[in-house]
Amino acid sequence: MATDALLRQWTLYKHLPRSGSGKTAAEITELLADQGIRVHKRSVERDLKFLHEVLQLDVDDSSKPFRWARRSDALGFTSAGLTTLQSLLLLTAEVHLKTLMPRSQMDALRPLFDEARAATSRRSAGEGIAAWPDSVAVVPTAPPLLPPEIVPEVLESVHHALLDRRQIHVDYAVRDGGRREWTLHPVGLVHRGPVTYLACQIDDQEDVLLLALHRFRAVQVSTFECRRPPLGAMAESMAMVASGFNDRGPIRLVLEMDAAAAKHLQEARLSEDQTVEASGSEDWVIVSATVADTDQLRWWLRGYGDQVEVLQPAGLRQWMAETMTEAAGYYQDD
Q1: Residues 6+ away with beta carbon under 8 Å from 175
Q2: Could you tell me the fold of the domain covering 2-69?
Q3: Helix (H, G, I), strand (E, B), or coil: what is residue 237?
Q4: Where is the signal peptide (predicted)?
Q5: CA atoms within 13 A on the CB side of 150
Q6: Predicted confidence band at 320 (pLDDT cuts at 50, 70, 90)?
Q7: pLDDT digits (tens, 9 = 90+) for 149-170
């Protein structure tokens, strides 16, 4: 029936990749079967030729079997079905992701954002909720860093490996300038600011490590299934990245802070048990909270400079004294 063919072509088109090496007719036939649409490969080939005539697909016909993909600038079938609320959420996400994702990844998402813009443009300019993206801004809490570029084929292969639970063979550039080749068992992706990390197990090692995705030079997806990660591995990886890769455990932090600098801590607290009390010094307060002693915490404390004094614990106070003394020495005249 014509409706069956339309549904098949619609589903086929939606699942064509926008980038990468594309998919063969055989791969698309399997994909349709996963969606409950069972059809012969020859029918898929006819559908692809029809869609190519109508929508100008990208086709790699340099060798057989041909590989098919959507054009990177092609709109999908979704813009007509997006509500204004869904569109504004996508456009708000675009504003936020600009500072978090490398250009190549943003380019891959751009057609989706363009569809959202097309949906909102059907309303009068500046009307109600359609004007919301113009009223929202995202400002980073630290100096904005340009996200490192990730090889598009690397990202696509890692995504496929995670979805299909497959091992990957990688060429990785380590920090000292050397290269390593490993077989990895992927666990998941962790984003921190502009950097994306792959939590994984290397070769036969049991420990879960974090590797920066932008240092992957090449990735080959294996046919072998990866082993199950240890229980809680993803949560531990998230905590490790959040801590700045060094968590020394919980401490009772006691600070004497400039009252103006500490004002925001009364609204965005360090912990549930945080207290802020008057200090013996004018215009200063005592802030106490139970927190994790992480590199992230120490970076945060150093950022306050002469507006904070660490009173407790003694070890952290000594570290701050040594660090600030050393930093002050950089500015002393010879």
Answers
A1: none
A2: Arc Repressor Mutant, subunit A (1.10.10)
A3: helix
A4: none
A5: 27
A6: very high
A7: 888 888 888 888 888 889 999 9
Q: Which CATH class for the 152-242 domain?
A: mainly beta
> Residue 79 corresponds to which tokens in the numbers above?
């813009």
User: Rounded to whole angstroms, how far apart are CA atoms 67 and 168?
Assistant: 23
What one-letter code names the amino acid at 132?
A: W
pTM greater than the 0.70 cutoff = no
The model's pLDDT over 204-242, given as tens digits with 9 standing for 90+, comes to 888 888 899 999 999 999 999 998 888 888 888 777 777
CA 173 to chain CA mean position, Å:
20
Please, are residues 157 and 112 in contact by the beta-carbon 8 Å criterion? no
In angstroms, the CA 260 to CA 257 distance is 8
Domain with CATH 1.10.10.10 in the chain: 2-69
Sequence-distant (≥ 6) Cβ neighbours of residue 73 within 8 angstroms:
111
